[in-house]
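Ticket #199: bound-state structure for manganese (III) ion.
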Amino acid sequence: MSFKLTELSYDYNALEPYIDARTMEIHHSKHHAAYTANFNKAVEGTALEGKSAEEIFAGVSSQSAAVRNNGGGFYNHDLYWSVMGPGGGEPTGDLLEAINKGFGSVADFKAKFSTAAATRFGSGWAWLVKQADGSLVVSSTPNQDNPLMDVADVKGTPVLGIDVWEHAYYLNYQNRRPEYIEAFWNVINWEEVAKRLKA
Ligand code: MN3
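RESOLUTION: The complex was predicted; output attached.
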């Protein structure tokens, strides 16, 4: 197995009451585990074996749906768990500066990101993306696509992402996706976002 399911650095119940333990457990141990296993299966014995997810995404338009969907599912959830954590807070330092430069204020950034997440039709993700010139933009992608993929409308390095598939929130919020998005702002690990911006 070349791609491994990430262990969370916090307990399944650590993000309550914003994200409930049962949702976290199913999302990580079933959904993310399945994407990871199926990504490995899709890559095994092909020319992609041994390549990083990032390398595969750069040419994903010429790969199978299994590689694109499961590779995205593997990578996107990895990022999602890492940019969340108990405690919350607000962005500081270079990250705060980059957000202010890109969006005017943290409030304006949050509004733009929340709208992208709320208006993504069907299943997908909203992203804060670092573009090649270092600037930050908000985007969203369908299904398990992400900004590292050559098929993405907005390309770059995702530094923050929210999963808006129903499996990410339905047990607790049912059809109320905007409430889940609002809650998400309470469980962001801004240090991790800053680290990804710097990388
Ligand atoms: Mn998911």
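RESOLUTION NOTES: The chain has a mean pLDDT of 97.
TICKET STATUS: resolved
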